[in-house]
Design a protein that fits this description.
By secondary structure, the chain is mainly beta. It has two domains: about 375 residues, Fucose-specific lectin (Neuraminidase, 6 Propeller), CATH 2.120.10.70; about 300 residues, Rossmann fold (3-Layer(aba) Sandwich), CATH 3.40.50.1580. Strands 5, 6, 7, 8 and 9 form a five-stranded antiparallel beta sheet that branches. Strands 10, 11, 12, 13 and 14 form a five-stranded antiparallel beta sheet that branches. Strands 27, 28, 29, 30 and 31 form a five-stranded antiparallel beta sheet that branches. Helix 3 packs parallel to helix 8. The longest helix is centred in the C-terminal third of the chain and has 17 residues.
Length: about 725
């Protein structure tokens, strides 16, 4: 078996097992660089929270000697009952070995050989269908999958009748990265692997009918050859499988009892986005029957989380704050429906854990990474560089003490989100252009990024300065207008240069602040307006463009509508809002560490009569309270989003009477701004504006920061409902 068939030959795969007796116990297992298996144990304490002092001193990486495996071999472990642990590993001789622990007798002295003839780095998989039943699976050099089983009465089947061949060589000529197996009930087994053509094969067994005769396909896929497959059964009638495809995105296919076939067969695999190493290990966990949690370590070394439940659907990739990890495979357990624990072993043998607790919106909130010490083995990393040479991004690779034979790494770097150490991407990987006019708008946009990327080499023909990053699997280019140069012409120049530099951009977003138009729509400060075709207009009108005639000024011209992909996303976003699935408040609340962006800092929301002009100074302290429009208070301070026509022009609108007149002329305008008209015909985009004033003489800057943040949060929510795979199918702006 060659190294390409492994998910990553430099991983320290870690295995976590949960047992519950009078309290919870967690057991960890890792194979070190010396080929020995090490274990550590935690018992519940301190209100059930993981705490370093609760890891048993007796089991601080205790070696379980007696077998020599290849360095960093995968250790399969299972607790078939709370008082029993069983471990399995492939030895240097290609045989499978097992040892076990019981509450009464502690660890068995030594490892038992249960036969087999496998590549020495085979990924062994074990499942316990019942307390007195174990089923073991491994992939042979021929490409066939083999199984053996154990019962309390009959011992290991491999010792009496050899390993049973399930076939598989018709789909590949060598062993797979792994064989994923789930037991959705005591009388069923489902087995999966990825073949050389990147297609997933599966075979099922039931107690009634035995094994399927042939391997089947749960839907055509485009995975790397022999990619790592993850399978989960969250209910007896449900199966979900996950894999990271050749494009670096995660895909899933599922089966439900009663369905005609797998979803991948009926509708194709569903894309969940992401930007990971092709074939990367996807850690999937069902904390309860109606919840799925996914974890993947990105090329930048950070952990990413996506989750699903039937109420919210999929919430795509969010970076978990904290350490950058150089490991590739993680393990997770759920001690209750409200808690989970993650584990990873770094390339240098440093083990970390991270706890999470469920929040009000059904997502998990994670604490800080906690070190559980270092394996008592050499910290030398063998072989080539940690990140494959054909990777499109550089991971957080510390090569300060590297050598030709390997790389020495220190403790993972503790990074703040604002530090752009996420590796360089190619210009061709950026698909979304996001333009802001003011520094406060750019700052708000940057706060919405899931990650920031390193700057690219500057194009001598491009005067723009960019911030590069990612939201929900979309690679994004942020560009601001030159200082002091707002308006339609300046926006058009910035968009033109962005298109020329990033030729694969599919569409744009113009995001920032604007002046609201009170009227039929109950628009308030801090609300958001999104351009949408209305009254025969494309969503944005240039209200000061036209010609002088004897009868007066005649407005002419028509601006293009936003791209269909963005309008479809608006429909989905509006539906989510109506179903109370919006996360705008959550995105805004994450920036509470910047006081200038808080709603409390913005001050009161006061609307004056349209014909009443401002009286003196920067504030409205001298303006008459009798001219304030009496409006019914809202029940909450949540962000309200409006959809309709946005008026764009080269002049600042600062007169209530003129504002209302323009609005009437165009059948109802919701917002005024100064840049969008320069983009719509040459840079297909959607305009998103946070309301910071009422486009009258009373305008001031107190609401600008919060309004900019509200608009940026709205743009993020919009992007998160657009599958990255759909963006890739959209024409470029060229």
């Amino acid at each position: 078996m060659d190294s390409e068939s492994l998910p990553n030959i430099h991983d320290f795969p870690i295995t976590a097992v949960l047992r519950t007796l009078e309290r919870d116990y967690l057991d960890l297992f890792v194979c070190g660089n010396d080929g020995q298996v090490y274990t550590s144990r935690w018992s519940e304490g301190y209100n059930g929270r993981i705490h370093l002092s609760r890891w048993s001193e007796e089991y601080v990486w205790k070696p379980l000697r007696g077998v020599t495996s290849p360095p960093r071999a995968y250790v399969a472990a299972v607790a078939r009952k709370p008082s029993q642990l069983d471990l399995f590993v492939c030895g240097q001789d290609g045989h499978i070995y097992t040892t076990w622990w019981s509450l009464k007798r502690d660890w068995h002295s030594g490892w038992r050989d249960i036969g087999g003839s496998f590549p020495s780095n085979t990924h062994v998989t074990v499942v316990a269908r019942q307390p007195e039943q174990l089923d073991l699976f491994a992939s042979a050099q021929s490409g066939d999958v083999y199984t053996c089983w154990w019962t309390k009465r009959g011992n290991w089947s491999s010792l009496s009748q050899g390993w049973t061949c399930l076939g598989g060589r018709l789909h590949r000529k060598t062993a797979s990265a792994n064989v994923a197996v789930v037991s959705r009930n005591p009388n069923a087994l489902d087995v999966f692997f990825c073949d050389e053509d990147g297609q997933v094969c599966y075979k099922a067994w039931t107690k009634k009918d035995g094994w399927y005769l042939h391997w089947r396909n749960p839907g055509p896929s485009s995975l790397p050859s022999r990619a790592f497959i993850t399978a989960v059964s969250r209910r007896p009638d449900q199966l979900d499988i996950f894999a990271c495809a050749s494009d670096g995105q995660v895909y899933t296919s599922w089966w439900r009892e009663g369905d005609a076939d797998w979803s991948g067969v009926r509708h194709g695999w569903k894309c969940l986005g992401g930007h990971f190493r092709p074939g990367a290990h996807v850690n999937a966990l069902a904390t309860k029957p109606e919840n799925l949690e996914l974890f993947v370590i990105g090329n930048n070394g950070f952990m990413y989380n996506a989750w699903w439940n039937p109420k919210h659907g999929w919430d795509y990739w969010t970076r978990i704050r904290g350490h950058a990890m150089s490991g590739g495979r993680t393990s997770s357990v759920s001690r209750s429906q409200e808690t989970l624990d993650l584990f990873v072993c770094d390339y240098d043998g440093q083990v970390y854990t991270l706890g999470g607790e469920i929040s009000k919106d059904s997502s998990f909130q994670f604490a800080e990474w906690c070190s559980l010490g270092t394996l008592p083995v050499t910290r030398q990393v063998p072989g080539p560089s940690l990140i494959p040479s054909n990777s499109t991004t550089d991971g957080l690779l510390d090569t300060r003490s590297g050598s030709a034979a390997g790389v020495q790494r220190t403790f993972p770097l503790q990074l703040d989100r604002a530090v752009t150490l996420f590796g360089k991407h190619r210009r061709e990987e950026y698909t979304v252009g996001w333009i802001c006019a003011l520094p406060v708008e750019l700052a708000a946009a940057e706060e919405m990024l899931d990650e920031e990327h390193e700057d690219l080499e500057k194009d001598e023909n491009d005067n723009n300065v960019y911030t590069l990053g990612q939201i929900g699997g979309h690679n994004i280019v942020l560009a601001g207008l030159p200082a002091g140069q707002t308006g339609i012409g300046s926006a058009a120049v910035v968009a033109t240069q962005l298109k020329a530099t990033f030729k694969r951009v599919r569409f744009g977003l113009m995001v920032g602040i604007g002046g609201g138009v009170p009227g039929k729509e109950d628009i308030r400060l801090g609300d958001v307006v999104i351009s949408q075709p209305n009254q025969g207009h494309g969503g944005v009108i240039q209200y000061d463009f036209g010609k002088a005639t004897p009868s007066g000024f005649e407005r002419t011209g028509f601006l293009n509508s936003p791209p269909p992909a963005l309008l479809s996303a608006v429909t989905r976003m509006r539906a989510n809002y109506l179903r109370r699935k919006s996360k705008l408040s959550e995105y805004v609340s994450k920036v509470q560490n910047l006081p200038e962006f808080t709603r409390d800092n913005a001050g009161p929301d006061i609307l004056y009569e349209a014909s009443y002009n401002h009286v003196g100074g920067d504030s409205c302290e001298m303006c008459s309270a009798d001219k304030v429009v009496d409006r019914r208070p809202r029940k909450s301070n949540g962000i309200v989003v409006h959809y309709g026509t946005i008026a764009s022009g080269n002049r600042v609108m600062k007169d209530g009477t003129t504002r209302d007149g323009v609005s009437r002329d165009f059948g109802g305008v919701l917002c005024f701004e100064m840049e969008a008209a320069g983009l719509m015909d040459n840079f297909p985009c959607l305009v998103i504006r946070g309301i910071c004033d009422y486009a009258d003489s009373h305008k001031n800057k107190r609401w600008q920061s919060y309004a900019a943040l509200a608009a940026a949060a709205c743009a993020k929510e919009l992007l998160l409902v657009i599958p990255p795979a759909d963006v890739a199918k959209t024409r470029t702006v060229e």
